[in-house]
Amino acid sequence: MVQFEDISGTRPYFHEATVDLRHRFNSVKTGFSEAEVVEIWKIWLELINRKHLRSNGSKFTQAGTLYEEVDYRLDELKLLGFAWPFTLAPGGDGSLDGSEWKMDSPLSRLGYSVAGNADQTAQRRRILADAFEGQLPLRDGEKEIWGMARSGQRLHRIATLVAALVRNQKRRTRPSKRAIERWEKDLEWMKSTYYDRTAFAFGWPKIA
After folding, report:
1. Is 81 in contact with 199 (CB distance < 8 Å)?
2. For residues 203 and 72, what is the distance between their CA atoms, to the nearest angstrom?
3. What is the pLDDT of residues 73-119, one digit of tens each?
4. Residues 26 and 67 in one domain
5. From CA 19, how far away is CA 52, in angstroms rounded?
6. Does residue 31 form part of some domain?
7. Domain range for 159
8. Tens of pLDDT along 144-173?
9. 79, exposed or middle or buried, with CB in 10 Å at 0-12, 13-18, 19+?
10. What residues contact residue 10 under an 8 Å CB cut-off, 6+ apart?
11. Which are the contacts of 81, defined by CB distance < 8 A and separation ≥ 6?
12. CB of 165 within 8 A of CB of 89?
């Protein structure tokens, strides 16, 4: 992962006009990948150094207006970050994970299951991808919990639910090793596909 401190003292776009920075920002402003977020961060670094260009009396200049947009987008991206849920379940006493445990969930309604002798890995991954990227079969009151498609909130809810399934299974007197292995492999796939190297996983720099 790129360390923001590595670029914090540089101004790679020092010689670029504000209109060129605008084009750069427009090409990456909706992205979540590491490269896209680092690009936004570099643009921000240049604009914050153009203090005498950001305002003209009580009015924003073009640089000032762009700075406000870039700064707002970085604030949005910071709020997306979350820690990946854990699956450790020490002291297996058969207890469940409370609010995270649901027999009926949007995932189960889509057909997500680790049951059966046949290995349906490809099918489960398609369901998980659809759950993150598309529409969910939500009941009343669930939309606020599960969030929008491709959002940090949606990914967090999916991962948290699957992790809770793992922990609850591990706490059983006779846990299913096959179910645990499938859930944990699905979690690893979700993490590597949608979490790692994106804004969701970033450790954000402290901005003075």
Report:
1. yes
2. 18
3. 988 887 778 888 888 765 544 444 443 445 689 999 999 999 988 88
4. yes
5. 17
6. yes
7. 98-195
8. 889 889 888 899 999 999 998 998 888 888
9. exposed
10. 45
11. 152, 199, 200, 201, 202, 203, 204
12. no
Kindly state whether residue 123 falls inside one of the protein's structural domains: yes
Three-state DSSP class for residue 198: strand
Q: Quick one: tokens of 163?
A: 């992790």
Backbone phi, psi, residue 151, to 5°: -95, 160
3-state secondary structure of 7: coil
Task: Say which DSSP state 174 is in.
Answer: S
Burial of 136 (0-12, 13-18, 19+ CB in 10 A): buried
Q: Are residues 76 and 102 located together in one domain of the fold?
A: no
Q: Collect all residues with Cβ–Cβ distance below 8 Å to 105 and sequence separation of at least 6.
A: 161
pLDDT value at residue 208: 34
Amino acid at 99: S
Would you say 200 and 82 are in contact if contact means Cβ atoms under 8 Å apart? yes
Tokens of 10: 């540089």
For residues 73 and 103, membership in a common domain is answered with no
Q: 60 has which bridge partners?
A: 55
